[in-house]
Every structure is written in C-alpha cells, then in structure tokens.
Predict the structure of Oxidoreductase.
Amino acid sequence: MTARMIMKLRVASARPTTPEVLHLCLVHPQRPELPAWTPGAHVDLRLPDGRVRQYSLCGDPADRTRYEIAVKREEAGRGGSAWAHRNLLPGAVAHVSAPRNNFPLVDAAREHILIGGGIGVTPLVAMARQLAAQGRSFVLHDCAPSPARAPLLDELRAICGERLRGWFSAGGRRFDPAAIGPPRDGAHVYACGPQRLLDAVRASLGAAGWPDAQVHSEVFQATLDENFKPEPFDARIASTGAVLHVPADRSLLQVLREHGLATASSCELGVCGTCTCGYRDGVVIHRDVVLPVASRQDRMTPCVSRARVGVTLDL
Ligand code: FES
C-alpha cells in the first residue's frame, strides 16, 4: 500500500459551470509544474476532517501548471462537496494528492467512443482534449438533463466540434447505447457516470457482442450490496505469522490499522484502489469496483473486501 503525496495547492479560480457544479483551477503556490498525469486520472481532495473525495482531472494533460476539477454539490451526499463549494474560493488552499489513473485510454485503440453522464463527463473532457490534440478518431456522447445542466459544455463544444453528441433528456433526446453499433476491431468504449448509465451501456454492448476488454467504465460511487451480511474472519500476516481477527462489524482495513499495518487509504468505499494489497490464499469476497478481474486472484481492497474464514495477506 503506497501513501499518496499530498500537496497544498492554491485555488486560482472557481466558477460555476452549471448551477450545481463548480469548476476549480488549482496551482502550486511556489512550483511552476505539478506532477504529470494522463487522461482519466483523478486526484484525492482531503477535507479538514480527514475525509477524502476523488475528482477526475478535466484540464489539459499537456499543461503541467495547473489541475482542473469539477465538483458537483451533492445534496444527498456526505458533506464533502458542500464543504468544497463553501470553502474552495479563489485564494483558498486545497489539500490534493498526486494524480492516479484507474481509467486510462488504450494507446493502441484506433477509435474511441466516450460516453459521459452528468458530472461523469469530467474524465472524458481530458480524454477528448488529448485525442483531439493528437488528431485521433473519437466521438463523445454527453448525457445530461439539459444543456444548462451539462458540466463543461462550452469546453466540450470547443474541443470536440462536430464530434460532440448532446443527449438532453428535457428535450426528449435520451442516449441509447444501441446507437454505438456492432463491435469493431480497434474500437474502445469509455463510460463514466451514474451506475444505471454504466449498466445500460454494458448490457447493450454485451448483447451486441462487444468484448469486455473493449468496454471501460469508471464510477465514483460505491455500489455495495445493502443485503450483504459481513461475517468475521481471520487475516494472517505472511511476514510475521501474526493472526488478526476481523469481527463482523469492522473492516479488514480498520483492523490492519489498529495493528499499525495499514495507513494508506482514500475512498474507503472500494472505488479508488489506494488500499489495495496482495494476498496468498483464502477465499476473498471482493466488494470493490476498482480491481480488474485479472487482479482479483492475488489482490484485494481491505476497506470493503472480506474473506470466508481466513486469508493470508502479503504484508
Ligand atoms: S481506500 Fe479506496 S478502494 Fe480502499
């Protein structure tokens, strides 16, 4: 588990891009350049009470002088976005991690189909910027209630031109994933947005015969099964042989922390991948949405995932 560097960045500008979404530009107060990133990357924003929220970078990956993020005020959320809207005004200091990318573009792809729902369009803005700059083939489907409530729409129009398809439900235009058509060699689909949009895209493309490896998605909300009944289990630490008991009402991450074994975490919802660690044996109940299937044989996310009876951790 690697800790992520936290930087104190200054809010250079904060302007509404829709009535609910604030578009922030962050710069380093002393350094001319920030750590490099690639489209699809996100940063962690650390709140004063220690909580962490993830935001996709939506600026230009070629511009190392600034990070841009868009923060939607979630009335039903856990308070992080409301805090950001109240406090991240020009001149304020934001505690921000170095970027991490769990949602990269496929370099070898010949055609890119980007699908964004609401605030989920933010990583796709950075993807579109790079694809347009490189003269590569892409189209961006932007789904929102109306143009006025579509984040960063002016930027998208300037970047994409006629490659932008707006789907605004208030105007009766709802996105239908069937419009993507049959699978094509070298074509990759990237979807980010509400779970129901991602489910619809995956179901439709799956039925049309698109291979899973050509369909990529990212969610920033946990989709944990509310009916899941956690059971206690034991975690053995491979390096010391110590056996730690994980009660039903505590996460493996909490128990590791209590024993000084894990500090790096971020979302604690199974969506960011920060807490990932290796394991050697045991039947792991994977409850995250971030680990690729191929990694689940020997990696797990202790913030949400558990084990049946016992597991040996590569710690
Ligand atoms: S802390 Fe984010 S997946 Fe565990």
About this structure: The pocket of FE2/S2 (inorganic) cluster is lined by residues 265-268, 270-275, 288, 290, 301, 303 (CB under 6 Å).
